[in-house]
Automatic annotation (TrEMBL):
Protein name in the entry: B-like cyclin
Binding partners and assembly: Interacts with the CDC2 protein kinase to form a serine/threonine kinase holoenzyme complex also known as maturation promoting factor (MPF). The cyclin subunit imparts substrate specificity to the complex.
GO cellular component: cyclin-dependent protein kinase holoenzyme complex; cytoplasm; nucleus
Pfam families: Cyclin_N (PF00134)
């Protein structure tokens, strides 16, 4: 066949100069694509900050949380984390559920005689709502709990939605992680992100999530993955060396960082 001039030549006879020019063009395309990706990431970060500020996350120094609320939160956190693991949900779903819980409990008065039962139903409802926001595959209600009838859970879901004014797309520290890891971590070994996510879950018991900026909490957890023994000056130096992180409140980041240092 190769010796027959009438047979079509199916081999690709490439001009080296053409390949070189094509490589140059592809390199230029890659530069443009990379630049666009960077700009999109920065735009996304600024959008998150705008949402965070607009929502009004703020630290309340003299906040006093009633003993019953603290106990209720611990019960809710324990139950939500247990069910989240059992159902194979992402850690951010648990964090969002407790964010709903904190906001609801701070806005809605609960009769003293009904607190114990209410807390359990609220926990289920908040996890259900968080799963609807975060999870692609959601199990039937029966896998969440067998303690309550489905009707009571659905009524509580609706109450939570009404009290929270249907504002369910709340910013959590998880939204910042990819950006912060890229900026603050020189290396990204296997398990880095999952370790940071577990630190975020651990801080839930220490703070009321609605009174603290998610960006500062995310930065603290990310820096803990970099170095677990940073002094405040060293932590500040790492943050200020990255101009794009100008919006972070250094004292707040360091406060959460020290909380995460406790075993």
């Amino acid at each position: 066949m190769n010796g027959d001039p009438s047979s079509p030549d199916l081999h690709c006879h490439e001009d080296p100069n053409f390949l070189y020019e094509d490589d140059e063009e592809m390199a230029e395309v890659n530069v443009v694509v990379n630049q666009n990706e960077i700009e999109l990431e920065e735009a996304h970060l600024h959008s998150l900050i705008d949402q965070e500020i607009a929502f009004g996350f703020r630290r309340v120094e003299d906040l006093v949380i009633d003993d019953w609320v603290q106990e209720a939160r611990l019960q809710a956190i324990t139950w939500v984390q247990t069910r989240t693991r059992a159902l194979g949900f992402h850690p951010r779903t648990a964090y969002l559920a407790i964010t709903y819980f904190d906001r609801f409990i701070s806005l809605q008065a609960i009769p003293e005689k009904k607190r114990a039962a209410f807390v359990r139903v609220i926990s289920v409802a908040c996890l259900l709502l968080a799963a609807k926001m975060e999870e692609m595959n959601r199990p039937p209600l029966s896998q969440y709990t067998i303690q309550f009838q489905g009707g009571s859970i659905k009524k509580m879901e609706l109450l939570v939605l009404v009290v929270l004014k249907w504002e369910m797309n709340l910013i959590t520290p998880f939204a910042f992680l990819d950006n912060f890891i890229a900026k603050l971590c020189q290396e990204s070994p296997p398990g880095l992100k999952s370790g940071i996510e577990q630190r975020l879950l651990s801080i839930m018991t220490e703070i009321h999530l609605m009174h603290h900026r998610p960006s500062a909490i995310a930065a603290a957890a990310t820096l803990m993955a970099v170095d677990q023994n940073l002094a405040q000056e060293a932590l500040e130096a790492k943050i200020t060396s990255i101009p794009e992180l100008y919006f972070l409140e250094i004292e707040a980041v360091y406060s959460y960082y020290t909380i995460m240092q406790v075993p």
